[in-house]
Amino acid sequence: MVDKAREVALKILYKIDKDKAYSNIVLNEMINKNKDILNKKDISLISEIVYGVTTWRLTLDEIIRKYSKIRLKKISPWILNVLRMSIYQIIFLDKIPKSAAVNEGVNLAKRYGNKGSIGFTNAILRKIDKKDYKEFFNEKDELNRISKTMSMPKWIIEELKKDNLDNNKILQICKNSNIKPKVSIRVNNLKTNKEQLREILNKEGVKTVNGILDDFLILEKANGLENLKSFKEGLFTVQDEVAGLTALILNPNINDRILDACSSPGGKTTYLAEIMNNEGNIEAWDIHKHRTKLVEQNAKRLGIDIIKTKVEDASIYKEEYKNKFDKILLDVPCLGIGVLKRKPDIKWQKKKEDIKEIQKIQFNILNTCSKYLKEGGELVYSTCSIFKEENRNVIEKFLKENKNFSLDKLTINEEFFKEYISNGKFLEVYPNQNTDGFFICKLIKK
Questions:
Q1: In order of start, what are the domains of the chain with their CATH numbers?
Q2: What does the CA dihedral 295, 297, 303, 306 come to, rounded to 10 degrees?
Q3: Which of 174, 262, 384, 441 is flagged as catalytic?
Q4: Beta carbons of 184 and 211 less than 8 angstroms apart
Q5: pLDDT beyond 90 at 21
Q6: Mind listing the pLDDT tens digit for each residue in 130-180?
Q7: Whole-model pTM?
Q8: I need a labelling partner for 266 at 20 to 30 A (CA). Which of 123, 142, 309, 349 fits?
């Protein structure tokens, strides 16, 4: 008999591969679809397997290659994912006995494979041992060793190397990109305050600790947040603290006219509105209508009415917006290498060739939207990536071509973030125990 939790996990992994879909989206869809047959323990195991296999895929595939005479591309996608999830349990989940992982894997192979694949699955899984992972630490080439032990594509490691980071720093970035992310929430000061929210959450069974930033709390457990009464009433927003820092650095004033040109799903936009005490004007753009709807939904839940959404392509110049805004936030599209612990799929979906393409988009958006800023106005440029090509290089090219702009000195009160400021003007946060990786700088129009 097939274990229902593992079967759902397998279907999710198969769909992620087949549709090149993001694991968090497919996971939520499948859990909702099967909620009548799943309990909390099942959902926890499904989440563990899906995120674990997605995070450690390169390492798991290297172990399969060691024992399989069949090339990975020739193995049925169903059986390949049965092997991955079973090996993940054997290597990384100490609470699950090897016998259980093997037996459940073979049961799945019986349902989703044929006679040959049943024997193939059984033969490989019985050979697997924790030493198969430990052997990668003996790899002589240091970059290969980091790649195999940390399940990081080599091109990402090479890009970080190109950015003049030493191997120890690269190893730490890769390690931190594999840890389970902390869930932080931003207090909606329009409706409550931090102490009141802590009391409310405590009554709802959610324990919290203070975050790095004043308006943030860290949750000890974060399952089913969207079902909480406090969430539905708009008392808080789920947001990583370093992402929230973009709004604080832009530091909007009450009654400012603000543009958030890449706004969806609205986390940063709504924080700007909260800082402005819901007084002023914010235009929130996105290239797709369904994404501007997300901003509208978030604003409504939080009780914010100063945000006006528009479907606009921020890379295409429009004369009507020239010199219109006091401040502009550009959290531009990027490869997202700073958020791998939240979206491990990125490792397998992005390629080295994507860097030049995304860099062009970033520069075009910055170059275009800079013309919408009033003289003396401020513009914050940010990405959730950690490659210099997407960050410093874009800014340096822009400044060479736009002499009427200069970099402003960053002033941040929190000691935690001060160590990540370089030259006083670039905040370059690498993935760490507390936050995602991020880049932020502020430009002034002279």
A1: 4-133 (1.10.940.10), 139-176 (no CATH), 183-238 (3.30.70.1170), 241-445 (3.40.50.150)
A2: 40
A3: 384
A4: yes
A5: no
A6: 999 999 999 999 999 999 999 999 999 999 999 999 999 999 999 999 999
A7: 0.94
A8: 349
